[in-house]
Design a protein that fits this description.
The protein has 3 helices and 32 strands. With 417 residues, it is of the alpha/beta class. Strands 5, 8, 11, 14, 15, 19, 21, 25, 27, 29, 30 and 31 form a 12-stranded mixed β-sheet that branches. Strands 18-17-16-20-24-26-28 form a 7-stranded mixed β-sheet. Strands 1-2-3-4-32 form a 5-stranded antiparallel β-sheet, with helices on one face. It folds into 2 domains: 111 residues, no CATH class; 295 residues, no CATH class.
Length: 417
């Protein structure tokens, strides 16, 4: 019995280890297969995302790129297609293949609308943000952030070169945060606004013939606009015309071809006004207050104004005006918001410093001086001209004036793997 028991025990262990060994071999094989599957899936994924990064970089360098990619990468293959996304954006779809395993990665890119900046300046130049100045909303400059006294920056602030203070009594108050940034070109595609005006807005141009013109626009609180036109910079204006803004420009775009514009009044509706420069023209004159019928700081409002000048935007000289109120986002290609004066260092026409109350933003080539400053009891204070008091229109984070300029470069707004 002892021998038989031992034999049965040996046989039992042999069967048991045979079963276990078979299971171990099968598990080992499955683990190997799983590892191979994981490797191939990971390789396909890496190829898809690598090609998507390559395509996104090409769009960043050249926003008109739409060639796509169709090539072999790392023993696999990939195809990246380019589709239009929204009004100005692009959608990139990358589909890879590695030994029968496919993967897809998608990126959505859009430009940033310039109206989403409270202040944007290509250069600071010889002008400094100064005591009494208050900047609201996102602020960016492709230069040093220069301060004299203690200007206040309430929004997130970026610059490309760092902070420069005028003296030991000066430093910016950065209430919304600060960081260095890459250069953002001050450039836009003007044809987009012109084409919008042709398609569903209003184009002011010399008639008959072609050439330089002037247009005067008075916005009325009842939703109408009164306008005059003349051929050339002087002489009598033509007859006035008053018409509903929605009738004059159903899509809200007013385009003055090779001309200068003089504006004031109360805007009831959504409008973007562009002054085109072709040798001459491109200047927008703010003659007096230009405000919304409903102030969004006080009550719900759908009124919006965008001013786009291919030369610059100017507050016309009128020392008797006192404080001035400006509502809207201002794009000034060759300057900032310029206050007309015979001497930008002393503002001799002004007997005191008034307030320029701006609701919206200024996007321009440079910071223009708005006042003369004196050091009084260790503090720089404005004494003549205008103290710049700015409040960003938070509505522009979600909605902007119709066809307002966007950055040339696109940015990734969503990424799917």
């Amino acid at each position: 019995m002892g021998g038989k028991a031992s034999l049965l025990l040996v046989i039992a262990f042999g069967v048991l280890f045979g079963i276990v060994g078979s299971n171990m071999l099968r598990t080992s094989n499955e683990a190997t297969d799983n590892l191979v599957d994981y490797y191939k899936k990971a390789k396909a994924h890496n190829i898809a995302t690598s090609a998507l990064n390559m395509a996104a970089n090409k769009v960043f360098v050249n926003h008109t790129w739409n060639t796509g990619i169709n090539r072999d990468i790392d023993d696999g293959s990939v195809v990246v297609s380019v589709e239009n996304f929204g009004t100005y954006g692009k959608k990139l779809i990358s589909i890879s293949n590695f030994e029968g395993y496919a993967d897809t990665a998608i990126a959505w890119l859009e430009p940033k609308n310039f109206a989403q900046y409270g202040n944007f300046y290509d250069v600071m130049g010889s002008v400094w943000a100064a005591a009494g100045d208050t900047f609201s909303g996102p602020f960016h400059t492709n230069d040093f952030l220069q301060s004299v006294g203690h200007p206040v920056f309430r929004g997130y602030t970026t610059c490309t070169k760092g902070i420069k203070n005028f003296d030991a009594f000066s430093s910016p108050e950065l209430q919304g945060g600060f960081s260095l940034s890459s250069n953002i070109p001050l450039s836009f595609d003007a044809s987009l606004i012109e084409n919008a005006a042709i398609a569903g807005g209003k184009v002011f141009e010399k008639s008959p013939g072609s050439g330089y013109i002037n247009v005067k626009l008075n916005f009325n609180s009842d939703g109408t606009v009164t306008y005059w036109q003349r051929n050339g910079p002087a002489g009598p204006w033509g007859d006035s015309t008053t018409v509903a803004l929605t009738t004059l420009a159903p899509n809200g775009v007013l385009y003055v071809k090779r001309g200068d514009v003089f504006i004031k009044g109360t805007v009831n509706g959504k409008v973007t006004l562009m002054a085109n420069k072709n040798v001459q023209g491109g200047l927008i004159h703010i003659s007096d207050d230009i405000v919304y019928n409903k102030n969004p700081l006080i009550e719900p409002s759908t009124d919006m104004l965008g001013l786009v000048a291919q030369e610059h935007v100017q507050l016309d000289l009128d020392p008797s005006r006192g404080d001035v109120n400006i509502h809207g986002s201002i794009y000034s290609q060759n300057r900032g918001l310029y206050v007309e004066t015979s001497n930008v260092n002393t503002f001799p026409e002004f007997s005191q410093a008034y307030k320029m109350n701006l609701l919206g933003g200024v996007i321009g080539k440079k910071v223009d001086a708005t006042a003369d400053y004196e050091l009084i009891a260790g503090v720089w204070v404005p004494v003549r001209g205008y103290s710049y008091v700015h409040k960003y229109d938070d509505r522009f984070n979600k909605e902007v004036p119709p066809f307002f300029p966007v950055t040339i470069k696109l940015r990734v707004v969503n990424w799917y793997e």
